[in-house]
Write a structure and sequence with these properties.
This protein is an alpha/beta fold. The protein has a domain of about 60 residues. It has 11 helices and 15 strands. The longest helix is centred in the last third of the chain and has 23 residues. The chain is globular. It binds zinc ion.
Length: about 325
């Protein structure tokens, strides 16, 4: 791991922040984390819980101007896997289950105008257009390909002008937790919704077993760690009423798999940071699940198989209890 050069997001450029949702200056340090997934830096960040609203947030964290440095090219292709760039057909086939799960959140709505923020390559826009929606997208980076030339604008959502006639639905799939000042985003979304329109978003659940015990959030790219209570407060502040909120792993996949391997490694000598470093890295899946300190291990392979078998029923149970990792909500702008 190479630290970023001085002045480009290295350890000297971390900043402490107050709660990004309610502004409270009182919070409690829970644990320290590192960029295990992409290893852009070896800096240590802190996870804190706000004493007033209960949400979690990263502090110290990178400065806002430095955040782009923590998104290497591999980040945008990590879902596609190590095989690299896929054709559109392959991409849609790989995301079929995820796209269907997203679409289910809109199925009780009459198709109208839809804005997807964090549109990536346009996969959800394409799916929604098939269902009759008039679609537009926003994506921060213009280096993300747009293979079907879908109507996606590139840049900062907060700096863009939109048609004042508004939208019937605004979606943000796994975006809000990456935003430096998420309240401003929600305020802007609320202003773009037509009366009766919906804001539908997926975030990670700070009160989940996977988030708290197994630190499944992607640090330092996840900056705000939401709870159901903080979502309700945030939406209410901008006149939105949360109509539905549930944890469900069908959109972004299970986050519990690996917990048994992690626990075994911790019980038999790994430190937490050693085990997390193996688990979260994305270059060699075998290193965590099938090896012991870098050497192939049949015992770990067996435990990993057992892990996969027990994960699904446990994850389903957590979701029933509202304790799953991916938290999706639908909030409406009330009719006058
Ligand atoms: Zn707070």
């Amino acid at each position: 791991m190479q630290p970023l050069p001085q002045g480009q997001g290295g350890t000297d450029n971390l900043v402490d922040v107050v709660c990004p949702l309610c502004g409270s200056e009182i919070s409690r340090h829970l644990y320290s984390v590192r960029d295990n997934a992409f290893q852009v830096t070896d800096a240590t960040f802190g996870v804190r819980r706000c004493s007033r609203c209960g949400c979690g947030f990263l502090s110290p964290r990178p400065r806002e101007d430095d955040m782009q440095l923590y998104y290497p090219k591999a980040y945008y292709w990590s879902y596609e896997g190590s095989g690299g760039e896929l054709s559109w057909e392959e991409l849609i086939a790989k995301r079929r289950g995820q796209l269907a799960a997203k679409a289910r959140w809109l199925e009780d709505m009459k198709p109208g105008r839809l804005l997807d923020i964090g549109a990536m390559k346009g996969e959800f826009l394409w799916t929604s257009r098939q269902a009759g929606w008039d679609v537009e997208g926003v994506e921060l980076k213009n280096s993300v390909p747009n293979p079907l030339s879908l109507p996606i604008r590139y840049g900062d959502f907060l700096a863009m002008d939109f048609d004042p006639s508004g939208y019937d639905c605004v979606t943000m799939w796994a975006v809000l937790e990456h935003i430096y000042a998420p309240a401003k985003f929600v305020e802007r979304v609320a202003s773009l919704l037509r009366p009766g329109g919906r804001f539908i978003a997926t975030v990670t659940n700070f009160n989940s077993v996977q988030g708290g015990l197994f630190r499944q959030d992607d640090y330092p790219r996840h900056l705000t760690l939401f709870t159901k209570k903080s979502i309700r407060h945030l939406c209410a502040r901008y006149g939105l009423v949360v109509a539905r909120m549930e944890t469900d792993q069908t959109i972004f996949g299970g986050a519990l798999n690996g917990g048994l391997v992690f626990t075994t490694k911790r019980l038999f000598g790994y430190t937490a940071s050693e085990a997390f470093a193996e688990w979260k890295q994305t270059t060699d899946p075998e290193l965590f699940c099938c090896s012991w300190r870098g050497h192939p291990s049949p015992s770990m392979r067996t435990i990993s198989r057992a892990d996969r078998v027990i994960t699904l029923p446990i994850e389903t149970l957590f979701d029933r209890l509202g304790l799953g990792f991916n938290l999706t909500f639908s909030a409406a702008r009330p009719l006058p």
